[in-house]
Design brief:
- The complex is a heterotetramer, with 2 copies of chain A (138 residues) and 2 copies of chain B (81 residues).
- Chain A has 138 residues and is of the alpha+beta class.
- Helix content of chain A is 31%, strand content 41%.
- Chain A has one domain (2-125): Aldehyde Oxidoreductase, domain 3.
- Chain A is built from 3 helices and 10 strands.
- Chain B is built from 2 helices and 5 strands, in the order βαβαβββ.
- Chain B is globular.
- Classes of the chains: A alpha+beta (138), B alpha+beta (81).
Chain lengths: 138, 81, 138, 81
């Protein structure tokens, strides 16, 4: 089961993690990407993510398909949020399940690394005295 | 022929539009479209860092040729996750 | 913040994952170990974990302390359940947060690998026609 | 001197007790305690696989010496997680 969601609303982390896992899975690994209160020494007030929705969905699907081709996953859920996101809130939640843990760990790491490399979403950090677009990997 | 340009993030701000239709010559390349845009939107010249391109939601190189009714997206390196 | 819990009741996964993460953390990685419905080709009906409680608590604490010494973690929660556990239920939940994801991933993998190596807990699988103790790693 | 023996999993089943007090000679080693136990609890001899030991909740080798009032735990390879 592959689930890919792009949404503006807060991510229901509990729901995402509950979605992952079948009775033959021994492992569910999840990654929550959170908005940090600092970046390169500056205090961050909030973030805004801009997204090229149609293409982002296609690219996330490709990343998940690649992960399925490389590891024997049973379920995988990727939810990426866009728009304004506050400190401590989740910008992305990934959960994958597999019979054995090694595969689930590798798959989730691969998915977050690859999402950050190629999914068309851009982050803008807001500070007390302005904002800046972040280009490329952090 | 007619193509649609979409811009995002810093490119959107430099161009001042999110989406625009453009009449271009048959078989024009991505690179040529960008050169053409740089004349009208001078701030595009100031953007450091690589530009990325996608035709119809698929990444492409700047030597890719466009067809009628294509959508060309132009954007800076991504920073999602 | 380090939290270590051994309990007989079902693990409240949501609570564990919510406990992890501070405003300066960009990543929360979690691992849920679940009871699988099969093992070495046999259908498993449920498991029972026996635990040497006093020592298990000390050993999990050592594993978490080691992880803190190796990676810059902000929070880490490890909950291990014992007693009878049904198919699909969690036997262990680990969640760790860090400013950057690489550390959180490495720490959680290290913790589950090391818990399986040295924490005095033993698993017994129950089948329709009997049961067997599992010795050593799966 | 007096020590306490704790057993777990297959070792507990082989011995038929979870916990027991034993009077042993001063400075006895873990290995010697096990040899002694194997005489009373014959099923211990049948257990394949390594035995693990802990004195007062700390892993130890089988040549470790016990002191008065120590707790010696004897168990098979662990399988938690």
């Amino acid at each position: 089961m592959k689930t890919i969601i792009l949404q503006q609303e807060a991510i229901d982390i509990v729901h995402v993690i509950r979605e992952a896992g079948t009775d033959s899975d021994g492992a569910v690994v999840s990654f929550i990407g959170r908005v940090r209160n600092n970046s390169n020494g500056k205090t961050v007030l909030h973030l805004e993510y801009e997204v090229y929705s149609q293409m982002a969905r296609i690219e996330i699907q490709k990343v998940v398909d690649d992960a399925y081709a490389r590891w024997s996953l049973s379920t995988c859920v990727v939810v990426h949020r866009y728009g304004r996101i506050g400190i401590g809130e989740a910008s992305i939640v990934i959960a994958a399940s597999a019979p054995h843990r090694k595969e689930a760990f590798q798959a989730v790491q691969y998915i977050i690394d690859t999402v950050k490399e190629r999914v068309p979403i851009w982050k803008r950090e807001f500070y007390s005295n302005g904002s800046s677009w972040i280009h490329g990997k952090d | 022929m007619k193509i649609r340009i979409k811009t995002f993030a810093t490119i959107r701000e430099a161009c001042g539009f999110e989406e625009k239709e453009l009449i271009v010559s048959e078989g024009i390349s991505v690179k040529e479209v960008v050169q053409q845009l740089k004349k009208s939107y001078r701030q595009l010249n100031d953007l450091d860092g690589a530009l990325l391109f996608a035709i119809n939601e698929e990444y492409c190189h700047d030597d890719a040729a466009l067809s009628d009714d294509d959508t060309l997206a132009i954007f800076p390196p991504v920073s999602g996750g």
